Amino acid sequence: MTLGSVEIKPTTVWKIALSKIPMFTQWIEVDWSKGEQTIIWDIRFPRVLLGAIVGAGLSVVGVAIQSLVRNSLADPYVLGVSSGASVGATLVIIFGAFSMYGQYALSFGAFTGSLVSIILIFTLSRIGGQNSTVRLLMAGIAISAILSAITSLLVFSAPNEHGIGTVLFWLSGSLAGGKWEYLTIPTLIVVICLIVLMAQYRSLNAMLMGEESAGTLGVNTVQFRKLLLVITALLTGVIVSIAGSIGFVGLMMPHIVRVMVGSDHRRVLPVSALFGAIFLIWVDVVARLAFAPEELPIGILTALCGGPFFIWLMLRSSYSFGGSGR
């Protein structure tokens, strides 16, 4: 929070933060300007917290989706839920859809898009037989391609250039919209989903051995897969609605954590959330400073980190799911 186009001393940041806590207010001497307080408390503080929430959420959903499909290269966006959210948000930004919801129109549009996409994926994957993981992935890829094309079509037909620029920046991901009033719902959703997954860590561990093996261990694989899909859709929808499309965090963090702590989800989930939060906070710092005073979309930096990581992971023949054979 000290870093930015306006540099502020760490002691000032701590004083401003502590001054907002009633029990410390009388002990803090106000020696900062009103402008510094606005920058720290109203702009940077909620932005850093949003970065932590988004990073933790992306990492947690990455753990869930990799366990669901048993594929070490799976990414949270593989199911196409983010593409659906992007269509809904693009309709709001360019054409003013859902304007009756006021400041929550963007969130509602993204949620609606993600909900429609997950329903389509569920429906397609169940046509003609059992709702298998392979059919689920194929349906997700197909729906994602269609919805991405619809987003491009909407951008192409935009009535004004300002809307196009806003959508393109939003699609690349940004934490610039971080405000105190927008933090409550994402925080609750991420915390609740993390708690639910932590409570199901034994089932997640069993799923790594395959659905048949998990079934013999007493896991209701059909119901558990539905639970993971709902959590994936919910987390992805929340994150996309507030920060846009930010990729590869859910791919990188679970792998790094599994190499460090093993494959037990009782440890993987909380450590992944922590690492994801730290990673995205610092990526956002680089995004703010690299071309200051202009801001670089955070999704560009995560892609620059995640792309080479994905290639390295793909070429590393000795890699096993869970890291180093653990």
UniProtKB/TrEMBL annotation:
This is ABC transporter permease. Belongs to the binding-protein-dependent transport system permease family. FecCD subfamily. Keywords: Cell membrane, Membrane, Transmembrane, Transmembrane helix, Transport. The keyword Membrane applies. It is found in: Cell membrane. It is a multi-pass membrane protein. CDD domains: TM_ABC_iron-siderophores_like (cd06550). It comes from the Bacteria. InterPro entries: ABC_BtuC-like, ABC_transptr_permease_BtuC. The chain crosses the membrane at residues 48-65, 77-98, 104-124, 136-160, 180-199, 227-251, 271-291, 298-315.
